[in-house]
Design a protein that fits this description.
Layout lengths: L1 H34 L7 E4 L2 E4 L17 E5 L4 E4 L5 H14 L4 E5 L5 H4 L11 E5 L2 H20 L13 E3 L2 E5 L4 E6 L9 E5 L4 E9 L10 H12 L5 E6 L7 H23 L4 H4 L14 H16 L4
Parallel strand pairs: 4-5, 5-6, 6-7, 11-12
Antiparallel strand pairs: 1-2, 2-3, 3-4, 8-9, 9-10, 10-11
Helix pairs in contact: 5-6, 6-8
Bound molecules: zinc ion.
Zinc ion (ZN) binds next to loops.
């Protein structure tokens, strides 16, 4: 009995060590890639479409800020990069991966929105021939947040944040705009306030690939930095695009994104309806914040990191709607 217990304990310790090794290996590998500026791992879900999946985590030393999906589209004339990652090192590693696939120039760097995990890699792409593209409201958002983002990155990543900068875009999109990469047209759409007030999507007409930026979170709890009501309206319009491939801002590339959109819609609807109920009942935010949306807790990764902030955002959004 005694021996058996020791045996079980040893087995448990061994399994635990193996698990820790396996779990630990993933972020360390990603971090080593970034720190060593070796090319990032890419997926190739459709012809000429390359995606690097960020870690499902918040920005931390273990992942080197490599937490958002980033990538590029290759035309016959040039390449459009879509988001550049959370640090200059991530951007540099993306460029190294890009150079293994094509020697064509990068004519556009397109920002899906201003959040730092998607845009601090810009410094790797600054050059005479590269035009930075974003939603018309991006410059104001960047001006307001740049310093705060920079300080937070330094605090979270220390030396790993070195050289990271978000470029001020010079080609701004209101409504829709098409760009030609050479025998390949991509359609950009600037959305009304949803995930943020400067969400921009990219649709590749040839492969019907939709890059949603953070208008779609797959598996990772959605983050509300804009308006939940606007976001719910955007979800219907995004589904109506009938994309063959969908690249979310976080989570795996999808062939059939209906379930991911449905999960995200359900989460936002729960937030909206429970915040409205709390407001009708005269329940303060401080009292309601732990109860609202708690039914969603087991359904999402990183729920604890973002959900309370979402409740605060949606409660505040709805507070004066009547
Ligand atoms: Zn975002």
């Amino acid at each position: 009995m005694h021996a058996l217990r020791i045996g079980s304990l040893s087995t448990a310790v061994l399994i635990g060590s193996l698990l820790a090794l396996l779990l630990g290996a993933l972020p360390i590998t990603v971090n080593a890639d970034v720190a060593g500026k070796s090319p990032l791992l890419l997926e190739n879900p459709a012809d000429g479409i390359y995606v690097h999946r960020g870690a499902m985590a918040t920005t931390a030393a273990e992942n080197g800020g490599d937490i958002a999906n980033i990538g590029f589209i290759v035309g016959s004339r040039c390449v459009a990069v879509i988001d550049t990652g959370g640090t200059q090192a991530v951007g540099t590693a993306l460029l190294a991966a890009l150079r293994k696939r094509t020697d064509k120039p990068v004519c556009y760097v397109i920002h899906t929105h201003v959040h730092p995990d998607h845009s601090f890699g810009d410094a790797a792409f600054v050059g005479d021939a590269t035009v930075f593209v974003a939603h018309a409201r991006f410059p104001a958002a960047l001006a307001a947040r740049r310093e705060g983002y920079r300080q937070a990155l330094d605090r979270l990543l220390g030396v790993q944040a070195a050289g990271s900068e978000i470029a001020m875009p010079t080609l701004l999109v209101e409504g829709e705009r098409q760009l030609d990469l050479g025998d390949r047209v991509i359609s950009l759409k600037a959305w009304p306030t949803a995930h943020t007030n400067q969400d921009l999507t990219v649709f590749d007409l040839r492969t019907k690939t939709l890059w949603t930026g953070d208008l779609l979170f797959a598996g990772h709890v959605p983050v509300v930095d804009g308006k939940a009501i606007g976001w719910l309206a955007a979800i219907d319009a995004l589904i109506a695009l009938n994309a063959a491939h969908v690249i979310p801002g976080h989570g795996p590339p999808l062939r059939d994104a209906a379930t991911a959109f449905a999960d995200q819609r359900r989460y936002l609807q729960v937030l909206v309806s429970e915040c409205r109920q709390a407001l009708r009942d005269g329940v303060t935010l401080a009292t309601a914040v732990d109860a609202i949306g708690s039914v969603e807790k087991e359904r999402w990764l990183l729920f604890e990191d973002y959900h309370r902030r979402n409740v605060t955002a949606v409660y505040t959004e709805l507070e004066w709607e009547n």
